[in-house]
């Protein structure tokens, strides 16, 4: 039996030099933002450019509707149950006209994975991870890629 011993290269005898260690890259480039702009003053919404080159635009009202916090998840579930209980009856319009469109008062970056938005209706518990934001990108392309997955 012959044992093969690695021959150290001249001038570099450190075993397991740092160059050999590969950093894990867990992030899908489609869910990694390269630029995040939150337009609080103009109320224009949020613009995100992703590592795969895709650009997303989110209106604040849309983000408010898609708020991922537990309370809003709960409310959305109730609404769905309600419209399922009375399909097309038309007696109760689901969207009251007097409801003002929420905008944003402030936005905070949470670590390097999310943004937290405070809305003008006082709601501020929604933390939007970039992962979630890419999933809810309102464009048709992302709807196809991220929101039509078979169960
Ligand atoms: Zn919420
Ligand atoms: Zn998109």
Features:
151 residues, alpha+beta, NE0471 N-terminal domain-like, extended, binds zinc ion
- What is the number of strand segments? 6
Bound small molecules, which ones?
Answer: zinc ion
Secondary-structure class: alpha+beta
Series of secondary-structure elements, N-terminal to C-terminal: EEEHHEEEHH
Helix fraction bin? 10-25%
Oligomer: single chain
Spatial strand arrangement across the major sheet? 1-2-3
Major β-sheet profile:
3 strands, antiparallel
Indicate the proportion of strand residues: 15-25%
Radius of gyration: 24 Å
Distance from N terminus to C terminus (CA atoms, Å) equals 54 Å
The DSSP helix count reads 4
CATH A-level architecture of the domain at 29-82 and 102-145: 2-Layer Sandwich
In CATH, the topology of the domain at 29-82 and 102-145 is named NE0471 N-terminal domain-like
What is the residue-mean pLDDT, rounded to a whole number? Answer: 83
CATH class division of the domain at 29-82 and 102-145: Alpha Beta
Shape type:
extended
Q: Any low-confidence stretches, pLDDT <50, length ≥5?
A: none
